[in-house]
Amino acid sequence: MFRFLLLATLLPALAVSDRFNIIPCPGINLPTHFDIPECVNGSPCDFHIGQTITLEISFQSAGEVTQIPTLAEITRANGEVHNFPLPTGDACNAVVGGCPIGAGHHTVRFPVTVAGILPDEQVTITVTMRDQNNLGLACGSIIAQFHPTN
Predict the structure, then answer these.
(1) Per residue in 8-48, pLDDT tens?
(2) Reported confidence tier of residue 115, pLDDT bands at 50, 70, 90
(3) For the whole model, what pTM was predicted?
(4) Which of 21-25, 115-119, 136-140 has the lowest mean pLDDT?
(5) How far is it, in rounded angstroms, from Cα 145 to Cα 106?
(6) 139: phi then psi, degrees, rounded to nearest 5
(7) Are 68 and 127 in contact (CB under 8 A)?
(8) What's the fold here for domain 23-147?
(9) CA distance 54 to 17
(10) Is the pLDDT of residue 132 over 90?
(11) DSSP labels for 3-21?
(12) Which residue in 38, 54, 81, 91 has its CB near the most CB atoms, within 10 A?
């Protein structure tokens, strides 16, 4: 089964990471911080097929948030988009301190194992987080390449 993330836009990337560029999504704020500790060499991030990676995403909320439905997608080079479930489900299960959260700065951490990608395939990984009213909290994409497991 393929697991993938949506290419949100080809707008110029804004830096919210010291190591790689984050591609913004139309109409939704970039995360205030986006990191993948396993992406050590910068864009495109190099991973191994089946490797578990950690998405660390920080965002600003304007008020109380009781749910954080999160969509994770991968877009393949041929344009196919595949959703994949996050192991935490609703991001409230991954936010530091849990939900509800108040106005302010918050961080979520998602462990993700990406499978079903062809060796040396370059993909776009997108994560979109919304609140209980479907208002965008944060969205960003990165470019990644997956290599065969050694």
Answers:
(1) 222 233 335 556 788 999 999 999 998 899 988 777 888 98
(2) confident
(3) 0.82
(4) 115-119
(5) 28
(6) -155, 140
(7) no
(8) Immunoglobulin-like (2.60.40)
(9) 14
(10) yes
(11) --B-----SPPB-SSSSS-
(12) 91
Rounded to whole angstroms, the Cα distance separating 124 from 9 reads: 10
Structure tokens at 81: 């988009």
Q: Do the Cβ atoms of 29 and 149 come closer than 8 Å?
A: no
Contact call for residues 28 and 147 (beta carbons, < 8 A): no
Q: Is the dihedral of CA 76, 81, 82, 87 positive or negative?
A: positive
Residue pair 23/141 in contact by the 8 Å Cβ criterion: yes
Written as one letter, the residue type at 19 is R
Place of tokens 């109380």: 64
Angle formed at CA 3 by CA 48 and CA 49, multiple of 5 degrees: 10
